[in-house]
Design a protein that fits this description.
alpha+beta, single chain, 4-stranded antiparallel β-sheet
Length: 105
């Protein structure tokens, strides 16, 4: 009986941790998008935008694809050692502010 309860609690805890880590990646993408939009308003090239390389808690590494500037795509890839996220290990945000994959929200 105790083993069953512990198993359920561990699964719930793991889900909570993964959700918090995804939120870290989503927050980083949105913060970077704000910086990019500011650069667009200032008519700066994407290379002059001060963007972070990692999410605030370090669960995701950020990259920018701005080959067709002012269109862009930000990516957040889960770092090694983070809890497995399945389909949410790689998040991305395009200029229209849609975070993909949608199933991670």
């Amino acid at each position: 009986m105790i083993g069953v309860l512990l198993g359920l609690a561990q699964g719930g805890w793991r889900s909570h941790v993964e959700q918090a880590q995804r939120a870290d990646g989503e927050r980083a993408l949105l913060a970077a998008a704000i910086e990019l939009e500011w650069c667009l308003l200032q008519e700066l090239p994407a290379s002059d935008c001060p963007l972070p390389t990692h999410s605030p808690r370090g669960y995701y590494a950020l990259t920018l694809d701005a080959e067709d500037w002012p269109a862009y795509r930000l990516s957040a890839d889960a770092e090694r050692g983070a809890v497995r996220h399945g389909d949410c290990a790689a998040l991305s945000l395009q200029r229209n502010a849609e975070i993909l994959p949608v199933t991670c929200r």
